[in-house]
Amino acid sequence: MNWLQDTFLQPTLVQAVAIISIVSAIGLFLGKLKIFGISLGITFVFFTGIFAGHIGIEVNKDMLNFAENFGLIIFVYTLGLQVGPGFFSSLKKGGVLLNTIGLSVVLSGLLFALILHWSTDVSLPNMIGLLCGAVTNTPALGAAQQALLQVNPDNTRGVTDMALACAVTYPLGVVGVILAIVILKALFHQEKTGDDEKESNDTHTFVAEFQVSNPAIYHKSIKEIMSLTDKHFVISRVWRNGKVSIPTSETTLEEKDHLLVISVKSDVENIKVLFGEQENIDWNKEDIDWNAIDSQLISRRIIVTRNRINGAKLGSLRLRNLYGINITRVNRAGIDLLASPDLHLQIGDKLTIVGEANAVNNVGKILGDEIKRLREPNLLAIFIGLTLGVVLGSIPIAIPGMSMPIKLGIAGGPIIVGILMGAFGPRLHLTTYTTQSANLMVRQLGIVIYLAGLGLDSGAHFFETVFRAEGLLWIGLGFALTIIPVLIVGYAASRFLHVNYAKNVGMLCGSMANPMALNYANSTVNGDEPSVAYATVYPLSMFVRVISTQLVILLFQ
To answer: Quick check: 172 and 475 in contact, CB under 8 A?
Structure first.
C-alpha cells in the first residue's frame, strides 16, 4: 500500500491534484448545508482547505501556487465575460442612480477600513483582508494579495495573514448583510396598497386605440413622429378607409387614421397628446374588428445565433420595413435594452418580436434562432482573452508620487479584458457568448480551485490566529465593516433618495456581491425587483472592488 501513501502524502503533481479535488468535493458538499436557512455555498471549500492545512496536509508549493492563481484568473475573466454585455448598458438611465448608490457602499466601506487601520494596530494588509471577508469578495482578496507581493515579493506571511483575516470575517459578511436587510425591512418595507398595485401595473404592456387628430403629425412618417417623443411605443396596426395594414417606419399618418398602439400604461397620456385622441370605446368597431385582426399577431422570443449578425446594428437589418414586424424588447445578459436602430446586436441577444406568424418565422431564420449553436463552446475567445488579460495585468503603470509603477495583476487585467471582450468583442466579430450554464461551470471551477488552494495555503496558522486577542478584534472589526456602510447607505437611499425597499435591498446585495443575502431579500417581496437591481449594480461594483483593493495596498502600504 506504499503507492497509496505516496499518492496522498508525497508532494507531487498527482498529490496536488488529488488533495485539491478532495478538498473541493468535501467543501462543495458541506456548502449545501443550511444553518437557520443560510448557506455559505462554495465558500465552504475555503474553510475545508483551512482545516486540511491545519491538520498538517501539505501540497507542493509550486503546484499549489499555480492552481490558486490560474483558478483566480479563469474566474475573474469569465466573470468579466458574463457581466460585459450588460456592463455599459447598466450605467444608462435608471441604472445611473443605483450604480452611484452602489459605488457609495463600496467606497464608504473602503474609507471605513482605512480609518480603522489608522486608529487601530491592525496592519493595512490585514485590514484589507478583513474588508474582503466582510464584503464576501474573494476576487478582491486575490487582487490585494498580488498587489502586496508587488510591493514586497518576500512578504508571503503577509499574504497568508490577509487570507486568514478574510476567512475570519467571511461568515459575518453573509450574516451581516442579511441583518441589515432585516433592519431596513422593519424601517421602510410596507405591504403594497391598492394604489401601489395600480402603479405597478402601469408599467405593464398596454394596448390602446387612438385616432389621429393632431395636425402637427399629419403627413409625417412614423419615423419622424417617433423622434418627437422620448416615449417608446409600437404602432401595431393602421386602419384607413376600411383597410388595415401593418405599418413600417416610412408609413405616413393621415387625419382620422385609427392606430393600435402597444406601450406601457403609464405612457398612454403622453401618447394621447401626440396623436390627439384616444378611443374610449371597445376595440370592436362597426366596420373593423381589432380583436380579430390582432389575433393574427404572435409574440415570440428569438435568439441571435448567426455569426454575420454578430455586431450588426439593428437598424441596418431593416427588419420592420422588410417583414412588417416590431421588435419590442432586446434582452442581453438579463438586462432589457431599448430596441433602437443604433443598438449593436450580439450573439445570445434575445429579441421579443411581434408580427404575423410567417413574418416572425422569417425573421427567426435571418437572426439564427438555433439554440444548438449556442451550446457549442467557443474556446478561441477564452484563450485570446486570458492571454490579453495577463499581459494587461503585467503592464507597469507609472503614477506620479509613487516610487514604483503599479500593475493591474492577475485579477485586475483579466476582469477588464473580460468586460471589454463581452461588451465589444462582437463588433470585432469575436463570438464571446457562452450559455449561462457553461459560463457558470467555468467560473465555479476557477473559484473553487482558487478557494481550495487559498485554504490549504492559509490553514497552518488559522486557529492560532483566531483564538487570541487579535482574532477577537478582527471579528468585531469585520462585523462593523459589513453592517455599518450597508445600513448608512441603505437608510440614506430610502430616506432621502426615495429608493423603494425592493430596489434598495437588491442594490445593497449587488454592491456587496452577496447572492446569499439576495436570496433572503427575494423572500421578503413579491416580484423580481431585488434581482434586477442586483444585476444592475453587480458588474460595476465587482470591478471597482477588485481594482480598489489593489490601489489601496499600492498607495498606502
So the answer is: yes
**Range 410-437 burial, b when 16+ CB lie within 10 A, else e:** bbbbbbbbbbbbbbbbbeeebbbbbeee
Give the three cell numbers for residue 127: 485590514
Give residues with Cβ within 8 angstroms of 250, minimum separation 6: 221, 222, 223, 321
Give the C-alpha separation, 176 to 517, whole Å.
9
Find which of 152-156, 322-326, 486-490 is predicted with most confidence, using mean pLDDT. 486-490
Which amino acid, 408? L
Quote the CA–CA distance of 350 and 302 in Å, as a whole number.
6
The helix or strand, by DSSP H or E, that contains position 534, with its residue range, turns out to be helix 529-556
Which residues, at least 6 apart from 375, have a Cβ–Cβ distance to it below 8 Å?
435, 438
Whether 257 shows a pLDDT value over 90: the answer reads: no
Question: Out of 38-47, 99-108, 315-324, 414-423, which region has the weakest mean confidence (pLDDT)?
Answer: 38-47
544 CB neighbour count, 10 Å cutoff: 18
Alpha carbon of residue 240 to chain centroid: 47
Q: Is the dihedral of CA 136, 139, 140, 145 positive or negative?
A: positive
Give the H or E element holding residue 170. Answer: helix 156-188
DSSP helix/strand/coil, 299: strand
Beta bridge partners of 220: 253
Of 380, 416, 375, 352, give the one whose Cα is nearest residue 546: 416
Confidence bin at 280 (pLDDT 50/70/90): low
pTM of the full structure:
0.62
| Contact assessment for residue 163 and residue 457, using Cβ atoms and an 8 Å cutoff | yes
- Contact by Cβ (8 Å): 509, 542: no
Q: Given the C-alpha cell 393602421, which residue does it identify?
A: 238
More confident residue, 318 or 486: 486
State the pLDDT at residue 402: 60
Neighbours of 334 (CB within 10 A): 18
User: Between β-strands 350-356 and 297-303, what pairing exists: parallel, antiparallel or unpaired?
Assistant: antiparallel
Count CB neighbours of 356 within 10 A: 15
Question: What is d(CA 210, CA 212) in angstroms, rounded to the nearest whole number?
Answer: 6
Q: Quick one: average pLDDT of 449-460?
A: 81
Q: How far apart are the first and last CA of the chain?
A: 50
Which pairs count as long-range contacts for 143-146, CB under 8 Å and 24+ apart, including other chains?
A: 143/409, 143/411, 143/412, 143/546, 143/547, 143/549, 143/550, 144/549, 144/550, 144/552, 144/553, 146/409, 146/410, 146/411, 146/550
The strand pairing partners of 336, in sequence order, are: 331
Q: Regarding beta strands 276-278 and 297-303, do their DSSP bridges make them parallel or antiparallel, or are they unpaired?
A: unpaired
What are residue 245's phi and psi, to 5 degrees? -140, 160
Q: How far apart are CA 167 and CA 161, in angstroms?
A: 10
Mean pLDDT of 104-110: 94
Distance CA 480, CA 412 (A): 27
Q: Which of 164-173, 385-394, 481-490 has the highest mean pLDDT?
A: 481-490
